Amino acid sequence: MWGHIFESFVFAEILKSYYNDGIVKPPLYYYRDKERNEIDLLIDEGGTLYPIEIKTTSDPTKSMIKAFRFITNIPGKVRGQGAVVCLAKEPLPLEENVWIVPAGII
Description:
18% of the residues lie in helices and 34% in strands. The protein has 106 residues and is of the alpha/beta class.
């Protein structure tokens, strides 16, 4: 249950940042396809999709972002930099175009 609570917390903090900027309909989405590939959060800014996974680990792996590849061929959209928001202590690159982001800095 801790994972669900943490995911809700991170989502609420991101949502709150949009509300604080006066954006009442933030471009936040959840992705799940018919094969059950999921991305916890997609931010759609100007036709660019920024994928975000939210994990309770402090040491995320590349396997946690495998669903990011499913948004690369959406017509009219470009995949932007992704992130894994987690319990890591400092921001680090996970792979090209994907960063590990400590939850404490969101």
